[in-house]
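In the design runs reported in the main text, the only information available to the sequence generator was the tokenized backbone. The following block is the verbatim input for one such run; it is reproduced so that readers can re-run the procedure and compare outputs position by position.
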């Protein structure tokens, strides 16, 4: 089962060396286990493409307050929803206060 784990930007703190080291170890562990498929940070701006009938509208962002914007993601392949939740719990313990969203990814 694949899950997309997205982390919202809390905007509350500046990363320090311990955070970078802890995240590097976590990413290395998940990579070595073959669980982590992709990870990355997301820029604060985006492009919204919406459609209504034949009309396509393109709007440049940003669209939400910084604390509501998704700041990063990890795509993982795990055996269960519970395993995805556990990985996200571990991630939140490393990065501290904030919010993450987990969604199952369907398809190949």
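Verbatim output:
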């Amino acid at each position: 089962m694949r899950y997309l784990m997205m982390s919202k930007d809390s905007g509350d703190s500046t990363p320090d060396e311990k955070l970078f080291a802890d995240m590097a170890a976590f990413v290395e562990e998940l990579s070595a286990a073959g669980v982590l498929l992709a990870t990355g940070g997301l820029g604060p701006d985006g492009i919204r493409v919406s459609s209504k009938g034949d009309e396509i509208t393109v709007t440049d962002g940003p669209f939400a307050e910084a604390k509501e914007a998704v700041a990063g993601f990890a795509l993982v392949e795990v055996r269960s929803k519970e395993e995805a939740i556990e990985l996200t719990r571990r991630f939140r313990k490393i990065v501290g206060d904030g919010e993450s969203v987990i969604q199952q990814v369907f398809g190949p």
